[in-house]
Amino acid sequence: MAKEIPEAFKHLLADNRVFAHLGTSMPDGSPQVNPVWFDAEGPYIRVNSAKGRQKDKNMRRFPKVALELLDPDNPYRYLQIRGKVVEITEDGADAHINTLAKKYLGKDTYPFRQPGEVRVIYKIEPERVSAWG
Amino acid sequence: MAKEIPEAFKHLLADNRVFAHLGTSMPDGSPQVNPVWFDAEGPYIRVNSAKGRQKDKNMRRFPKVALELLDPDNPYRYLQIRGKVVEITEDGADAHINTLAKKYLGKDTYPFRQPGEVRVIYKIEPERVSAWG
After folding, report:
1. Residues 10-39 of B with CB under 8 A from A
2. 0.90 exceeded by the pTM?
3. Maximal C-alpha separation, chain B
4. Would you call B68 and A25 a contact, using CB atoms and an 8 Å cutoff?
5. Which of A3, A93, A102, B120 is 20 to 30 A removed from B127 (C-alpha atoms)?
């Protein structure tokens, strides 16, 4: 069962100023952290990347991640989520990156697409959620 | 040899709006991400935590970390640093947390101290630095 985001912090899921700081694991077990766009689908957090990138390779190899969401109005208030990647799929990933472009940029179409890029959705089930501040 | 931060990104080290998003590794190899205060000491990045916290335990067990520093004026511009913790010490850690309180809050003394808390400095040597945007 996915752990729920506390009600008082759910606004962070929809705020377009909030990036997820996504932690993944490198082959030697050391962490990597990237800012990423995300959205919520029911109890899941979805992020979107492109096939072959470091975080794509990391999540395929070791599907455990961490997400930190910082309140843009109070940097001492944040959500810390740890969870597992329960689905990795190209199905719907082009539509999903456009949805995220709409959320973050107000644009109907993702403007940063690279030639040949294959978009991928990673569906994350929160297993541990801590709210701070 | 510590990898250098590119000149055009060095302003992020001194900007009090910039928190480091610190990735550490849990016992099972999964990542944890927390926002932390930091400063630079020569080529090193220093963070400060308290003994016994999860990130303290993680860095003592596995001294490899990642730091993401996001430009507050452009969220598509950021630094990604991966490195090793080359020193963990309580010496000077009380003075250091006060220095960070000055940087981030403009206060001479760290105001969030908990009774019995033992402060610790983690000195991080950047081994890989990527600048984005």
Report:
1. 19, 21-26, 28-35
2. yes
3. 43
4. no
5. B120
